[in-house]
Each structure stands twice: as structure tokens, then as C-alpha cells.
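With this grant's support, we have settled on a layout for protein records. An illustrative entry appears below exactly as we store it:
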Amino acid sequence: MKKQLLRVKQLASENLGRAEKTDDLNDELHQIEKKIENIKQAYHTTVKRLTSCLQSSISDLDRVKNEMDKVKVTMGVKQGKTHKTEAEKRKRKLPEYALATGMLETAGTLEDKSTGCKTLLGRLFEKCGGCEMALATTRIEHEMSLEQEVLAPVGLMLEDEVKLITQARKALTKARLDMDSNKARWTAAAKSAETDVTKTDKADHRKEKYEDSTTDFQQAQDVLVTEMLRFCSQEMRHAAILKTMLELQLDYHRMCVSVLEGCIPGVTRALETTALRPVFGYPLEKHLELTGREIAVVIEDCVTALLQIGMQTEGLFRLAGGVARVRKLKAMFNASMVDMSAFVTDIHAIAGALKMYLRELPEPLLTYELYDSWVQAGTTQDSDTRLQSLWTLVQSLPTENVNNFRYLMAFFQKLSQNSDVNKMGPANIALVIGPNLLWSRADQDTSTGMSDTGVRSKIIELIIEHFDWFFPEGAPLPSLSEDVSSQMGRKPRLHSPPAAVQTSQPVPQARPRPLPRPGSSGAVRKPAPPIPSSTSSPMNSSS
């Protein structure tokens, strides 16, 4: 206790400048000591910031201590199981895990009760939930790798190497204080011996203690210098920890990319192959391919309904249906939940929806490519040449367009046969339908091509009048005694995805563009039939 009080007194005297103070280290060693302190501070800051990036919540000190223990102990089977259990517990704390769990639970609720299968959205929630769960697993593996290969080595460095330097520094400070204290006592004893010979022995004893403390100081100084130099010699090993951190981060992001790249193609396939997509404004060719049909669903359903209840309706297609009702039917088609029986009392809404579908096709049924040829053929003066040109153009259309155009023309011919009642002869039908079957690209933004309205109407009128000549094979319109009645009273229909579609023929493949021009090689599918003899009068008058 007395020595400690003397040491405190001596430290106070040194601080106040009243006692002599020996330098522990020279200037060069002081620079090395400062460098080590900077390294220590840098790693302390890095550990703190890196730990804050880890999302599985364990306290910083506990995490580093746990990983230090794992580094010091040989991993066994039991410890491997503990490691896996810890990873599972920590994964539950990640936001990715919460997101994945929520998406997977949601997927179970998005099920079509009529089929017992998950809907498109349900399948995508399931795929995305699995992807997020894989990302959560990847994240926790990355965090645990960082703890084992970065935080634990840094913790060992701070715990062992820096701790040894700190202990050596304290020992040197104590040795210096003892040496300075003994020196001061020896100096005082030597002065007393000069005046009193009896105190010579005491001065010699103080001198011996001073020499012993000087030796201890030098030894403590050597130990500190050795530890500091050993630490500095390991700078490359310490710096390699930072490289390991970057490599682990690179591996983590590569794994995340791999998980996402493995998930996105499946999501894309589900989106591309589903038949559950908007019908209006969707390309005809893709719609038919996805649904496995020959006739577009809107065209077939509307025509079937109108054949049943609309053939006697005056002004069909000429009179507009209610806007709200037309939009409702459009929404039902886009949602693949069609119940035509709900529109039995609103015939004009069905006709309006059919016209809207034709007009909203990305490309008109008679195609952009052949627009100029249609107009040129329609303005031909000679009636026989006009019919031949129109027939050639019909044969030049893609297969999908021909099938749906023939289906519509067969229906309009049947409608015109009741013109005494419905007041919709070929000319009236063509006037309201022609602009929805043929228009130019310029018609979308400007009034260009409006002068061709009469020509377009005349083209459709001729084809309706001479349907049997243009299409001698006819068209498969539904029979009133078979499918039409069941069509009107059926429940809402859900379009099945392609895997569930049963068709007798393979889905037609896309035809190459551009389409062949009339008169070019391969443009005509079959020889043109002879011009109908009954066309002379109508053709001459229409010219």
C-alpha cells in the first residue's frame, strides 16, 4: 500500500513537472505505437459498422465471442447440428424470411375453387416466395461466413495480439515509475552521505535497487518493442481479412444473382403461356396460340349470342349499346369470366363489344400491310377485276385472319338475310363494320384515310353479298339447335391455361411477315373461281 501511494505521488509530481521523467520509448518506437493504436481503432470501427450490416439480430459482443469460440474449438458433428439450428433460428429474423413466408401463405389462398388449382397469381406468389426463401438462406449463410472468417479473426487479433501489447505497455510504465523512484531515492541518499558518512551504506543500497529497476525497465521495454514489432510484421495477414470480406460479399451477390436467374425464367414462362390475360388489345395470333382456338373468344361468343337473340333486332351494330354495359362485357372478357346470359336484354351491348374488340386489335383484321392494296382493289372501276383483286387479297391474309374474317362474314351474311326485319342489309352492315376491319396506321392519330371510308365499306359490302363465292367452303357457325342455347344460359367461363386445353389440331404457328402482295409468287392459295354471273348488275351500279 505504501509503495502504491508513493507511485501515485510520483506520477503526480511528474505530471506537474516537479520530478524527472524517463522516456519509455524513442521517437521511432513512439511512431510504431501510434500506428498500432490507429490500426486498433480502424478495426474497432470496421467491426462495429460491419456488425450493423448483419440483419440477424445478435448483439455485437456476443456475436464476436461466439465466433471466436468456434474458431478455437474443433468443429464436430454435434457442433455442426448446433450450427444448422442456429442458422435456422437466425434466418427467421431476416426480412426476406418474413416476405417469403407471407408470399407462400398468400399463394395458398389464391386458388380456383372450381378446378382446385392455383391461379396464375397464386403460382407466381408461390414461385416468388420460394425465391425469397432461397435469398434468405443465402443471406444467413453469408452473414455466418462473415462472422467466422472476418469478425472472428479480427476479434482474435484485438483480444490476443493487441491485448499483449497493452499488458506490455502497462508493465513498462510500472517499471519506469519504479526506476525513476529508485533513482530519486538513491540521489537523495547520495547527497546525505556526502555530509554524513554513516549513511554511505544506505546510499549504496539505494544504488543497487536503482540498478536492478533499470534492468527491469530495459527488459520491459524489450518485451513491449518485441510485441509491437511482431504485430507490425503481421500487417499483411491483418489486411488479408479485408480481402476475405470482399470475396465473401462477391460470392453472396453471385449466389443471389444465381437464385434470381433460376427463378425469373419460370415466372416468365408462366406469364407467357397463361391464357389468363386481357383479350381486348391483344394480338390475334398470340391470343389464338395461347388459347388453342381458331376463332377469337370475343368473336365466337358475341356471334353465338347474337345468332340466338339478335337476328331480329332492328339497327343491330348501327345503334350503340350502353357505354357502361359495353365496358362491363369488355371487362368480363379480359377477366376470362364471361356470362353472356347477363346481356340477354341488352343486345346492342354485345354488338358494341364485338365492334370494340375489332377496333382495339393492335393490327386490323385485314392487316396494315395490305391496306393500300385493299383501297386500290376497292377503287377498281371494272367490277370483274375488282372481285378478282379482292379475292386475291383475301387469299393473301394470314391463316388466323382468314379464319376469323370468314367467320364474321358468314355471320354478317346471315344477318343481312333478315334485313326486312332488322333493317341491316349488306350496305348498312358494311358502313358500320368496315372501319373496324380495315384502317391505316395514320388513322390512329390523324384524319388521314377518312376519305377511304366509303371504299372500305364497299369492300365489306361486296364480300358479304358474294360470301359463297369468296368462301365456298363456308364457315362453322354454331347451330341454333345445339350450342347456342347452352351458350346463353351457361355459367361464367374461365379460360384454362394451355396445358389444360384439349384441341383436335395443333395450335397454329406464327406466319412470317411481311405478307405476300397480290400478284406475287405464292400470294394465291388456290385458283380463283369463275366470276358469278349474277354480279353484272350490282357491280355496274356500284361503280
Notes: The two ends are 130 Å apart (CA to CA). The mean pLDDT is 81.
